[in-house]
Batch of 2 targets.
Target 1
Amino acid sequence: MIYLICMKNHQITIFDLARELNISKSTVSRVLTGHPNVHPDTRKRVLDLAEKLDYQRNMIAIQLATQQSKTIGIIIPEILSSYFPYVIAAIQEEAHKEGYNVLISQSNESYETEVTNAKVMLDNRVDGVIVSITKETLNFDHLKVFQKKGIPIVFFNRVCNEMVVPKVIVDDYEGAFGAVEHLILSGRKRIAHLSGPSSLAISVKRLNGYLAALKKHNIPADPELIISYDFSKEKIAIYVNHLINLKNPPDAIFAINDPTAIDTIQIIKKNGLRVPEDIAVVGFSDDYVSALIEPPLTTVAQPVREIGITAAQLLFDQIKKDSSQWKTPVKILKTKLIVRKSS
Amino acid sequence: MIYLICMKNHQITIFDLARELNISKSTVSRVLTGHPNVHPDTRKRVLDLAEKLDYQRNMIAIQLATQQSKTIGIIIPEILSSYFPYVIAAIQEEAHKEGYNVLISQSNESYETEVTNAKVMLDNRVDGVIVSITKETLNFDHLKVFQKKGIPIVFFNRVCNEMVVPKVIVDDYEGAFGAVEHLILSGRKRIAHLSGPSSLAISVKRLNGYLAALKKHNIPADPELIISYDFSKEKIAIYVNHLINLKNPPDAIFAINDPTAIDTIQIIKKNGLRVPEDIAVVGFSDDYVSALIEPPLTTVAQPVREIGITAAQLLFDQIKKDSSQWKTPVKILKTKLIVRKSS
DNA sequence: CTGTTTCATGGGAGCGGTCCCTAAAATTGG
DNA sequence: CCAATTTTAGGGACCGCTCCCATGAAACAG
């Protein structure tokens, strides 16, 4: 049997299959897309030949013809901490179940990069996008574009308050409240808080949880003990040392997240103080590391997999529906205090 | 001014721009692709209108027309350990510099999934692919397809010996040798080795390095102390307990990688033994966690960023060249022993 | 036995670009 | 000032596929 195939680029097209079988490309297309109205014999012949010639469909052509990229985008501030990889992994699983690819971009906590990444997503015609903003993001025009163009968007973790779209967050307030109350109930009197940039809602909510817990137990909030920083590694040492050297130093530190808490512990130890005897430390997120460090970190666990799955589901809910039917739920997932030896 | 634009899907095309300016879409295309032969005035008019109407190029159409996806694929066994995210981040940086997108897929250490992922990459017509195989991968047909189709492929970390393509690895043998010699020089006599699946070259090389170090120092290799396991979390406990309970137990354990070493330490501690006093432990890779655990882990550091950058560069070298000019270098990067308190 | 459905297939217009080929306009040189 | 050359712009095939429409054959009902 002589194949008439002309394999430019080593690639076989439906046209090659059609010519070989002396049928039209429409029929081949019908077989390949699972369209019902094809004679079983024809279907078999096409499928057999496709298999035999190792036909590989061209998703790019399909994307162009169907006007959907079958791709969703993820825009996150960074990929290296253990929180995000877990969420990504969960999103990817859901996406693959739906037959979607995932384009991941990290903004490196830079607003500029986030804007660029959003453009790349647009260029690539993603069918939807899941976003967690950088600490610098104050203007949201680059994200509102998605709304304007009718591309579904879902936020998680670090959300944008001024956009009415689906969001997945955890009960940061409750989580922080519980963590701080735990410190109070274990006898701590002067509890400091290493907070994040006030631009982020999570910073504000966790701070409010902290303040509420103090208030409930009639402990006056001391502004000296509340430090808001920008997540830059170098500055943690400065702030922790500052706290330690206060004339009335704290006996506990509640950190905005686990990486901060872990660094805090290292610095306290470097100063010759003990954790938790001299200063207790509590973090937020239950990163993979937190159970392994010495002392193991008390922290507020987030359901990372559930966050990813929920975000993906909210996105696909929108992708599948007409935009007029979109809902904008805000899913608030529960956190869980994990008490370990650092407190 | 009345715009004639017909914005199906809220998207503006070059045709819309052309009609609006009363010129041909060829000219618009020329402007947008930076082709030189365009009158400066025309160029400005096009650019201005594009800006004004917020024209967004359609990468999918471009990909189809130019026959390149401007996307590279990464196939890795998992994304959650700290080794891979660092490599990925480095690859992504390089890719973005070249104007390429990155499609990441994790095989979850499953051969089946790896095969599926390879197909997805092919479907999406990636211009090249960077691969680290699963522990199960013994057949490489799904990867040889890339070669056959002329799609550049680069391996890193876990490479395929039977394929002659560029690879990026570290000097596993030397690294293991140095780690074990370090244990010997610090007075350890019975050094066990928790090795990986023998299907992986890294397992074999690290094992050989281990054996060579013993030999050099005239320590007979005891088969009882060499355990090969499949990276499954559950089994580490069994093997470590087994080692501890030998009538002649080891005084040191060299683990194939850091996660294993970290788990090993936890289990030793659970057994009421001390690290390093009773048993020293050494790992491989210098994961982010390793410095933070108690005791901090002695380990063989890998240049993760350099691995990613090198792999990406080798890939782009091939992508840019005609396949007849492809070279197949194997870059062997240096490891570095980081001595901490676990040994 | 004929009119109406249903089924199987072919034809062809997109999808949104690129890029080659050609033609007209502008520039240059002798 | 005209031929030769270079710029600038347009036309249209093509990338590989989908999907609507048309057509003819087969199946069915009256």
Target 2
Amino acid sequence: MTFSEENYLKTIYHLTTASDSEVSTNAIAERMETKASSVTDMLKKLAEKDLVNYKKYQGVSLTSAGKSEAKMIVRKHRLWEVFLVEKLDFSWDEVHDIAEQLEHIKSEQLINKLDDFLDNPTEDPHGDPIPDREGRIVKIEKQLLSELSENQVGVCVGVKDTSSEFLKYLDKQEIALGSKIEFLSRESFDLSLRIRVDKKELTISNKIASNLFVKLL
Amino acid sequence: MTFSEENYLKTIYHLTTASDSEVSTNAIAERMETKASSVTDMLKKLAEKDLVNYKKYQGVSLTSAGKSEAKMIVRKHRLWEVFLVEKLDFSWDEVHDIAEQLEHIKSEQLINKLDDFLDNPTEDPHGDPIPDREGRIVKIEKQLLSELSENQVGVCVGVKDTSSEFLKYLDKQEIALGSKIEFLSRESFDLSLRIRVDKKELTISNKIASNLFVKLL
DNA sequence: ATTAATTTTTAGACAAAACTAAAAATTATA
DNA sequence: TATAATTTTTAGTTTTGTCTAAAAATTAAT
Ligand SMILES: [Mn+2]
Ligand SMILES: [Mn+2]
Ligand SMILES: [Mn+2]
Ligand SMILES: [Mn+2]
């Protein structure tokens, strides 16, 4: 399997699990910053290998073989991110691009030994679940901070947007995985939220709140 | 720089440092298990980028830019091998192929953090020197076991052949880096050697002895 | 010094993965 | 429902890295 094929599978996996339906050629092209015609070419190749279900003009989905390949790539990506943060002391906004490369290293033994070395983590530095060696994923109960109602209290357990920009903003506000977050009030004019993070009160926009996952206490 | 370009540079580096002279198209082709015509194509491209000195039919050598690129790839290869053995508990005969992949990961920050995480090792699991972040190499005094004379004593500090086959043979004979090796006698008929490894005496062929580096005590 | 053998380069082809431009199919709109 | 807009596919190129077969240069052997 080539890097390119793996990247397509991973993208289709993310798009289908997000929307829970067939995914369009254009959606893939946009996500991968490539042209629709290139996507079509690749879909034919992946269909030939029975990794995707593809019928012209009908959108695409992963076969079970394709899904399990995709999960293994996601597993590798997230385990390497844990390694980079936990062992090499990278910050959570620096690891994605390096993991994009490391996820393509081929060795089942390597990834399983890495998994053990890291004490079999179930979530990556951004709170995303890590599939185990059989591809099983432990889903945790979580919801967007923006969906809470006043006076509810939760713990920050993940981010939806994993861009370096957003993560650095969170660092600046001292919001991290594990932070206790109390929803104090909502400003109806612009939907901004007044929250308390650990001891400190601050105001955040609705855009911020809708990219933060919390687990209710 | 592509994987392929990196692999060519690394091969030219190894061949030129071994023979200390220009290297031929055929030598590169043989080492890389590819065709001479493919090598010629690549040499033109590398010359265009000023990474090699190349004149038709005259053999090739690395420019200083090419040499420093090559050393960085070797540095990455060997640091990853240390990681695999020291942290992930691989044995020394299992790490080469995985390191062949890992050496192409692009991130200076990654490799320097890995270096620190491993406590800045100067040799890899096979006794080969690891260039530091400026490309400097600390050469250690070593010679082939086959070149010793009777009754000389040394410590095993490296292997010339790093094939899995040879390394497993050494494991079986309980010869490892750090083993004390005494040259007892030489059988003139087949050049085989009688040696003592730590406490145990054994006979090894000249071929084995000429693939083991020792440092005299 | 020719001729023969070997090495190296060139010429032309191919597969992978991308692109542009144009055609075809689908979906939306009047 | 006919037409317009959008999406998707096809057709034809390009780049990278490989290959085979043949030509050219170098080296070895009569
Ligand atoms: Mn990531
Ligand atoms: Mn992540
Ligand atoms: Mn190696
Ligand atoms: Mn090594």
